[in-house]
Amino acid sequence: MFNIDDQKRSLHSYSARKFAKEAIQVQMEGFQRWGVMADWDNQAYYTYDPQYEAKQIETFYQLYEKVTLVKSLISETLTYAQAEQ
């Protein structure tokens, strides 16, 4: 599919990032051949980009904090409701 000769371009001789960049380029070319409309001139985000990774970690932490807050509020509500009985 990617026309990568296993002997010349094994994952052992190329970094995962280089392999990903090559795969992305092949996919973009395929999408363009298929007529997929996109802004091909502007760089997309890449999941291996350190800034993208940092943003994902920050987002997951914010979600964790919100879930912890909701659990705390539920616990307090249940404790209050039990105390009234």
Walk me through what this model shows.
The protein is mainly alpha-helical and 85 residues long. The protein has two domains: 1-44, no CATH class; 49-85. The protein contains two helices and no strands. The protein has helices at 16-34, 50-84. The longest helix has 35 residues, at 50-84. The relative contact order is 0.06. The model has no long low-confidence stretch (mean pLDDT 78).
List keywords for this structure.
85 residues, mainly alpha, 2 domains, 2 helices, elongated
Tally of helical segments: 2
What is the end-to-end distance? 67 Å
Shape: elongated
**Cα Rg:** 23 Å
**SSE succession:** HH
Main β-sheet: number of strands, strand sense, barrel status?
none
Q: Helicity level, as a percent range? A: 55-70%
How many structural domains are formed by the residues?
Answer: 2
Report the structural category: mainly alpha
User: Strand tally, please?
Assistant: 0
Average pLDDT number: 78
Taken as a percent bin, the fraction of beta residues is: under 5%
Low-confidence stretches: none
